[in-house]
Every structure is written in C-alpha cells, then in structure tokens.
Write a structure and sequence with these properties.
Elements: H1 3-19, H2 21-24, H3 30-44, H4 51-68, H5 78-108
Helix pairs in contact: 1-3, 1-5, 3-5, 4-5
Length: 119
C-alpha cells in the first residue's frame, strides 16, 4: 500500500473518530490533525501533476460539505454521516492547499534545463 493511500485511510479513520462525541470531547485538536494529514497527503501524493485530479480536489474541497448537509434528512444515521463527511472535508481542504502551493511553486520557479544552451 502506497503512502498516499495510507494517508487517505488515516484521514477517513480520524474523520470517523472525530464524529464520535465521546472521543471528540476528549481531544479538541481533531481539526488540526486532519489539516496536517491533508497537507502531508497533498505534498506527498503527486496530485498536482494531473490537472483533472487537481480540479477534482478543488471542487471536492469546496462543495462536499454542502452536499453532505442534505444527509441530515435521513433519520438516525444522517447526522453522523454528515459529521464524518464534514470532517473529511477538512482533510481534503488540507490536500487542496498543498496542491495549490505546489502548483504555484512550479509556476514561479524556472524549469530545470537538462541540456543544450544555458544563457
């Protein structure tokens, strides 16, 4: 299993743990943990190389929480699912920030030249 998959699984597991009220009240830094996992996943995952993946991450980071709010209408499990997806959105936003920072770095820094004329 690759490191990007492990980090995504960790984001899902931490999101589930943060949605459980008994566990969430014992540790108040779930958001920080999710953002840090997202930043690490974004920097290590190689998501910036493919434009389609980058756009998908940006759209998911922006809109998945609003879509998840409709789950509140499902009795019993709806609010729990909404809380888990809202927590996952925090991790996805961390990935989006890391991917954006890498894309800006690639635009600002000059490309490496491997041969030919170097002025």
């Amino acid at each position: 299993m690759s490191s990007d998959r492990i980090l995504l699984v960790l984001i899902v597991v931490v999101s589930i743990l943060a949605a459980i009220p008994q566990i969430a009240s014992a540790f108040a830094m779930w958001g920080l943990v999710l953002v840090l996992l997202g930043l690490i996943a974004g920097f290590m995952g190689g998501y910036g190389s493919d434009m389609t993946q980058r756009i998908l991450i940006y759209v998911a980071a922006a809109f998945i929480g609003g879509i998840a709010n409709s789950l509140d209408n499902i009795m019993v499990v709806g609010p729990w699912l909404n809380a888990v997806i809202d927590n996952m959105q925090v991790g996805i936003r961390g990935i989006a920030v890391a991917v954006f920072m890498l894309a800006m770095y690639e635009r600002i820094m000059p490309a490496q030249q491997s041969g030919g004329y170097h002025p």
